[in-house]
């Protein structure tokens, strides 16, 4: 089965074969312009729904008083308002029980005016985030991480896509980097990034269609694989794990994995890789902006599905 949901459909079509064969310093691939294009597409689709009397709605749930999480929710609400979404919000106290959280989810699931739902991650340690995610109506799952949606992705059935993998496909398409027929190596098989990204980029679609290899700690000589990658995607969450000696000269390098030390962002890809790569995401503002944009893409698609 092929997946007719194209994460890159809001971005430019992939070019036939632009090669990144020249060696450093690499062309930068910022995520901002990709996100802007996706937001423009979402805005037009919001307006189309509103002209039919429907206001798309992205609900959010925050548990506890973590400053960073509250900040992320505020950013998403501001963005939702700018795009024309309603954004009803439930803020549950830090000592909420799993049953309290499930009750809030059930309420939004049952509300026909709410089309998409986000539970801010992480929830306090005493709560089971995965169980909460399982409780979300899969058709309202704005992160595309509900197991049913990961199953849809595996089976090639359209549905909400995991935001970061979909953002990476859109980023490659936006910069007209040919993926089809090329060798993509992903370092990391995590549930959020590496694993769904491998499924996505192997699908039969012009902006995917790649020969995908996934390496991890079970492959100690992983550099053997990364060195032959036309497109190397870091998804490990190990700062500096990708060094210039792991990159084929002229390759496209996408930094997905990051770790935070306080507010300091530590990317998987060493900046010096730009001397070897043909194209590379910047240290800050690479994949991140596309992830946020894809969240709103999932939200508008959820609203459109309701009224299809
Ligand atoms: N930019 C964004 O917007 C965004 C969004 C989501 C996630 N992320 C980032 O993406 C990264 C991956 O997240 P995730 O949840 O998918 O992954 P995860 O569950 O943390 O898994 C990390 C993966 O990397 C592999 N790995 C770790 N150290 C390694 C090493 N030394 N050598 C080889 N492989 C190694 C692990 O191998 P094993 O399986 O063998 O343990 C595992 O497959 C994280 O840094 C996360 O912060 C970024």
UniProtKB/TrEMBL annotation:
Molecular function terms, GO-annotated: methenyltetrahydrofolate cyclohydrolase activity; methylenetetrahydrofolate dehydrogenase (NADP+) activity
The Tetrahydrofolate dehydrogenase/cyclohydrolase NAD(P)-binding domain, residue ranges: 162-306
Domain Tetrahydrofolate dehydrogenase/cyclohydrolase catalytic: 30-143
Domain of life, source organism: Bacteria
InterPro entries per UniProt: Aminoacid_DH-like_N_sf (IPR046346), NAD(P)-bd_dom_sf (IPR036291), THF_DH/CycHdrlase (IPR000672), THF_DH/CycHdrlase_cat_dom (IPR020630), THF_DH/CycHdrlase_NAD-bd_dom (IPR020631)
Binding positions for NADP(+) per the UniProt entry: 188-190, 258
Low complexity bias (residue ranges): 1-23
Pfam families: THF_DHG_CYH, THF_DHG_CYH_C
EC number: 1.5.1.5, 3.5.4.9
Region (Disordered): 1-30
Keywords in alphabetical order: Amino-acid biosynthesis, Histidine biosynthesis, Hydrolase, Methionine biosynthesis, Multifunctional enzyme, NADP, One-carbon metabolism, Oxidoreductase, Purine biosynthesis
SUPFAM superfamilies membership: Aminoacid dehydrogenase-like, N-terminal domain, NAD(P)-binding Rossmann-fold domains
Catalytic activity line of the entry: (6R)-5,10-methenyltetrahydrofolate + H2O = (6R)-10-formyltetrahydrofolate + H(+); (6R)-5,10-methylene-5,6,7,8-tetrahydrofolate + NADP(+) = (6R)-5,10-methenyltetrahydrofolate + NADPH
Similarity comment: family membership: Belongs to the tetrahydrofolate dehydrogenase/cyclohydrolase family.
Subunit description: Homodimer.
Function recorded in the entry: Catalyzes the oxidation of 5,10-methylenetetrahydrofolate to 5,10-methenyltetrahydrofolate and then the hydrolysis of 5,10-methenyltetrahydrofolate to 10-formyltetrahydrofolate.
Protein name: Bifunctional protein FolD
Lineage: Bacteria, Bacillati, Actinomycetota, Actinomycetes, Micromonosporales
């Amino acid at each position: 089965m092929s997946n007719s949901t194209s994460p890159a459909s809001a971005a430019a079509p992939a070019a036939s074969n632009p090669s990144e064969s020249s060696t450093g310093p690499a062309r930068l691939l910022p995520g901002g312009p990709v996100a802007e294009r996706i937001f423009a597409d979402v805005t037009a689709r919001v307006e189309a729904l509103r002209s039919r009397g429907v206001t798309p709605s992205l609900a959010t749930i925050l548990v506890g008083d973590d400053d960073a999480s509250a900040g992320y929710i505020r950013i998403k609400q501001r963005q939702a308002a700018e795009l024309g979404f309603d954004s009803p919000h439930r803020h549950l106290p830090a000592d909420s029980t799993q049953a309290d959280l499930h009750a809030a989810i059930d309420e939004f699931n049952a509300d026909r005016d709410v089309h998409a739902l986000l539970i801010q991650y992480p929830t306090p340690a005493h709560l089971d985030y995965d169980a909460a995610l399982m409780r979300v109506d899969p058709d309202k799952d704005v992160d595309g991480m509900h197991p049913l949606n990961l199953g849809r992705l595996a089976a090639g059935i359209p549905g909400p896509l995991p935001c970061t993998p979909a953002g990476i496909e859109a980023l490659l398409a936006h910069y007209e980097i040919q993926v089809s027929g090329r060798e993509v190596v992903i370092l990391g098989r995590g549930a959020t990034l590496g694993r769904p990204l491998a499924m996505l980029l192997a699908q039969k679609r012009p902006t995917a269609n790649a020969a995908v290899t996934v390496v991890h700690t079970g492959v100690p000589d992983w550099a053997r694989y990364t060195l032959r990658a036309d497109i190397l995607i870091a998804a490990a969450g190990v700062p500096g794990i990708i060094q210039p000696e792991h990159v084929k000269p002229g390759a496209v390098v996408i930094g997905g994995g990051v770790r935070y030390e306080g507010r300091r962002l530590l990317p998987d890809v060493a900046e010096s890789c730009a001397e070897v790569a043909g194209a590379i995401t910047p240290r800050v503002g690479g994949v991140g902006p596309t992830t946020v944009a894809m969240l709103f893409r999932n939200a508008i698609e959820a609203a459109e599905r309701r009224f299809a």
